[in-house]
Design a protein that fits this description.
With 307 residues, the protein is mostly beta strands. It is built from one helix and 23 strands. 2% of the residues lie in helices and 41% in strands. The protein is globular, with a radius of gyration of 20 Å.
């Protein structure tokens, strides 16, 4: 059972969903550029029309945006020509400057007007996600009051994680045909809910990714991939540690997927990013389990891969 859904990646956001094909949108005037994995389950795509600067490379698109929201790793831009909101995903990989001096993306503040240069390839969903940005230049300081005009928009797409809810997760990957985000719900967790003026409440679910016969839990979804591919796991609350393991499938395809219940799990090398996402390589024919530690507890997620 494959589910293609758009999920908010640095912060939990309202996702209106991707088309089943995970379509990508190439902005008018763009002549090329490769699509990188966004790596943030809660961001989605920009429909902004961008203009090529005279000194820009043929494959680059240049536009102007206002920083509508900036809080640590979560930044929201609004295109000043179209009014389309989007998340500048992978902005930490871009060159960010102000007055000719390179700055950190964290130094951007609401009200800044920025010139954005990138490959012009966006994810077609709402609000926007632009993973192909290469340069961001602050061209006007502005003030936070200037961004007040977008207060309702920010409230709509930036949601504060609910501490009483066990975080959800997602795995995102990009093929030649589509960008796909697979939603993950925890099958096993231990979660502490802080209670005002009372003892903390504990939520527990003792579950397993597969049963004693090796049959995979029916609530665990599949990811369809052509071969080994890079993936990014994101969560609706920032984790403090992520461990990924995998077990080979013993049956798949039309048959109910199974694993050898006595097989030893293989550790999968993963890298926890500053924004709380975890990057790792996935291959067809495995059950992947993601064990996540949070400040309020722990939760386990899983998916299996088919070709």
């Amino acid at each position: 059972m494959n589910k293609t859904i758009s999920l908010p990646l640095k912060a939990a956001v309202i996702a209106l969903g991707l088309a089943a094909a995970g379509l990508m949108l190439v902005l008018p005037g763009c002549t090329g550029g490769s699509q990188e994995s966004a790596g943030k389950p809660d961001a989605v795509g920009n429909r902004a029309t961008e203009q090529s600067a005279p000194n820009a490379a043929a494959s680059e698109e240049v536009s102007t945006a206002m920083v509508a929201y900036a809080d640590g790793d979560t930044i929201l831009f609004v295109d000043q020509k179209t009014g389309a909101p989007y998340f500048p995903t992978l902005i930490d990989d871009a060159v960010v400057t102000e007055n000719g001096v390179e700055i950190d993306a964290d130094d951007l503040v609401a009200g800044n007007i920025v010139q954005v240069t990138g490959n012009g390839i966006m994810l077609e969903s709402y609000p926007g996600q632009y993973p192909g940005i290469t340069e961001v230049e602050v061209i006007s300081q502005g003030t936070p009051a200037d961004a007040d005009q977008y207060a309702d928009l920010v409230a709509e797409v930036i949601a504060t994680p609910d501490p009483s809810a066990v975080p959800t997760g997602s795995v995102e990957y990009t093929t030649d045909l589509a960008q796909t985000t697979v939603m993950l719900n925890s099958f096993d967790y231990n979660w502490v809910v802080p209670m005002d003026g009372a003892a903390n409440k504990e939520l527990n679910l003792d579950g397993s990714a597969f049963d004693a016969s090796g049959a995979i839990n029916s609530d665990i979804v599949d990811a369809r991939i052509p071969g080994a591919i890079e993936a990014v796991a994101g969560f609706s609350m920032k984790p403090i540690n992520v461990v990924v393991e995998r077990t080979p499938l013993t049956s798949s395809g039309d048959a109910a997927p199974t694993v050898n219940p006595d097989a030893e799990d293989e550790m999968v090398t993963s890298a926890l990013q500053a924004d709380g996402t975890a990057a790792f390589t996935i291959e067809p024919g495995y059950l992947y389990e993601i064990n996540v530690d949070y400040d309020q507890g722990e939760a386990n997620y899983a998916f299996y891969t088919l070709s």
